[in-house]
Design brief:
By secondary structure, the protein is an alpha/beta fold. It contains twelve helices and 22 strands. The strands form five sheets. It has a six-stranded mixed sheet, covered by helices on one side. It has a five-stranded antiparallel sheet with strand order 2-1-22-21-20, sandwiched between helices. It is globular, with a radius of gyration of 25 Å.
């Protein structure tokens, strides 16, 4: 269902908007302003860094407290990443994965290597509902081989992730985070969002090893060392995996409480391109297509068949020199952006940021991607010099954004031609993944609020839009509420933020 804001924008019935400026003063204290001033001094937020800005779309300040204070935004940064990607690439943009080969085909035999040429698609083999099911995707790829007359491969199936260059992870991410699925790095060719699932159950006694079983992907090339112990009741899940993209070795450390139920732990897989090649190679074998040399990937420009070997393999064929026999496409960017914001999917967000770098500056390194993002922000009208952005997901604690900047960016997005698609990517209270927000409030109020949350240890933030109950687009409220360094749990901060949003909604 398209939002009222989008209807206002698309109807052409209103004049171009003024971008709000935090320099405007509150002419009369609103209920929201009085409440913000009260809670800023209470025991819950007194030791925190707390900032608020809420403005109408035509520039009137509804509530403000430290609006220029730069803070860690956590996942609210995804509002910037998805908005910039939609604005620059367009809502119908799709990632392309190509199947090609080197060598020659004679009498049904490929004398050479088959390449899965990644184009950055983050949904390959994902369990996400928008993704093409793995076996259907593989059947499409096999169909390309059938059409080319390939019945046997006298060579390798190579997962080629060279579309993205540079490290797969941001160097400012926490060491613990990079071992988890939510901290998985993205490559030009991924598989299952580069996640590694393991089933874990506590041992029989405190101090006993945690029982860990690899579930999916099977990853037979990996050597896992389980150094984790069963801990006393009430200590929760403190399991972490430490791994490197250079060698197939990982350690699962930490503890798992004896009173915890069995669960699937989601860690990171550092070898996404190789995993994709491995699973497709096995699929081909089940369909009667022999692959003589098995799976491989590309590392430092060379083919790597044995992940344990420190010796360099032969140089990979240049992508431009491969004979492409077919292409498959990801879901549309607007669908991926919606999942990115609704599920707060870090993997998707990082892919979008790095794709901007690859498309605009021919490099998906984080340095190039940040420059590309800055270029898009200038086009949108949100000065990138006013913000410090280190990644696309908000996982880095080196991101610093102010409530003022969020309001500026969100207001500028209203004037973007993709705004109708953009606002549909943002969650609503009571909806998917936001069931607990504004609990007890009426449905009419909830339907007017579009918001994105961001949280990590000590950080709780919400930014978004509040549609007017009556009036025009100029009566819409753009808001950002941010807390950092909170020493209390989110369960104490969230009711305060919910109350601010409800009071803001009462203003329009």
């Amino acid at each position: 269902m398209i939002s009222i804001l989008a209807v206002f924008l698309l109807s052409g019935l209103v004049a171009a908007a003024q971008v709000p400026s935090a320099s405007r003063k509150v002419t009369a204290k609103s209920k929201a302003q009085r409440y913000v001033e009260l809670v800023a001094r209470n025991d819950v937020l007194r030791s925190s860094v707390f900032g608020v800005l809420a403005m109408t779309e035509d520039g009137d300040t509804v509530a403000a407290w430290n609006p220029g204070q730069r803070m860690i935004p956590a996942s609210t940064l995804k509002l910037v990443t998805t908005g910039a990607a939609l604005h620059q690439l367009g809502p119908d943009f799709k990632f392309v994965t190509k199947i090609g080969y080197s060598g020659t085909i004679k009498d049904g035999v490929l004398e050479g290597d088959l390449y899965i040429i990644g184009g950055g698609d983050p949904t390959i083999a994902s369990k996400d509902s928008i993704a093409t099911p793995r076996f259907f995707l593989f059947s499409q790829w096999k169909g390309f081989l059938d059409a080319a007359g390939i019945k046997k491969i006298n060579g390798r199936v190579i997962g080629d992730g060279r579309y993205f260059d540079g490290p797969i992870e941001k160097d400012t991410w926490s060491y613990q985070d990079v071992g988890t699925a939510y901290g998985a790095g993205c490559d030009g060719l991924c598989f299952y969002e580069n996640a590694q699932d393991m089933k874990v159950t506590p041992g029989a006694t405190v101090g006993a090893p945690v029982n860990v079983v690899v579930s999916f992907p099977s990853s037979p090339w990996m050597k896992f060392n389980y150094l984790c112990k069963t801990a006393k009741a009430g200590t929760g899940d403190q399991l972490y995996m430490y791994a490197s993209e250079y060698v197939p070795y990982a350690e699962v450390r930490g503890s798992f409480a004896i009173d915890r139920k069995a669960k699937t732990e989601e860690f990171a897989n550092k070898f996404g391109a190789y995993t994709c090649a491995y699973y497709f190679c096995n699929y081909l074998k089940t369909k009667g297509i022999e692959v003589s040399q098995g799976p491989a990937d590309v590392r430092l420009g060379r083919v790597r068949s044995n992940l344990e070997s420190q010796e360099y393999g032969p140089y990979a064929a240049k992508v431009d020199g491969l004979k492409v026999i077919g292409s498959t496409y990801s879901p549309s960017l607007k669908r991926i952006a919606r999942e990115t914001n609704l599920k707060s999917d870090n993997f998707y967000a990082e892919t979008l940021l790095r794709t901007l770098g690859r498309r605009m500056h021919h490099s998906a390194s984080y340095d190039s991607s940040y420059v590309a993002l800055g270029d898009v922000l200038k086009k949108i009208g949100a000065d990138p010099s006013k913000v410090s952005i280190a990644d696309g997901s908000g996982l880095s604690r080196h991101n610093y954004v102010s409530p003022d900047y969020f309001v500026k960016f969100l207001s500028s997005m209203i004037e973007s031609p993709v705004f109708g698609d953009y606002i549909e990517t943002i969650g609503q209270p009571g909806g998917k993944n936001y069931e607990s927000r504004l609990r007890g409030e009426n449905a009419a109020l909830k339907s007017r609020v579009h918001l994105k949350s961001g949280s990590m240890n000590g950080v709780r933030c919400f930014s978004g839009y509040i549609e007017p109950s009556v009036g025009t687009k100029s009566d819409a409220i753009i808001f950002s509420i941010m807390t950092n360094n909170a020493l209390v749990p989110a369960s104490k901060v969230d009711p305060i933020i919910d109350r601010i949003i409800v009071l803001l909604a009462s203003e329009n």
